Input
Amino acid sequence: MQSEQDILELIEEDIWMMEVLKAAHSLGLPDWWVCAGFVRSKIWDTLHGFKERTSLADIDVIYFDPENLTGKEEEHLEKKLGHLVPDLPWSVKNQARMHVVNGLPPYTSSADAISKFPETATALGVKLDEQGGLVLISPCGIEDVLNMEIHPTPHFLGEVRLLSIYRERLEKKNWTAKWGKVKQGNSFLT
Output
């Protein structure tokens, strides 16, 4: 696996992932993406030669709607997705309000929010366009996820408080225990 096209083909060939994307697409949300571990885990599972999918703590569906900033709407959307594809850990978040939760200046779009995820290897999203074609977004590039390296995004690298959150996430997530070939950027841990 070497390119964005390789990633797109990998996801297109996964019936379950496409079912998840079709369910999210059916909501008609503005500037929506299924992101983070949904994409990263598929890539790392494949690069490790795993036959079974690594379980996901959640399936992150994000969107950007500055007109409706209530958490209740997100709960409603999670329930809708739960009816479409039951028994999945759906997590729906409007990125137009997540800056408040994260103590950051307002995001301008879902792409802006993804660029400010903690790790470059997780700053990925996929969606179906209006014609049903698969689209990948990777504001920090795909090199780290393909090289199985964990590094903070430029945003998290730029502030001590955020770098501390990044370090705590690395410890909590312990990705190297699941994916033995993954390497952490140790220079950021000291």
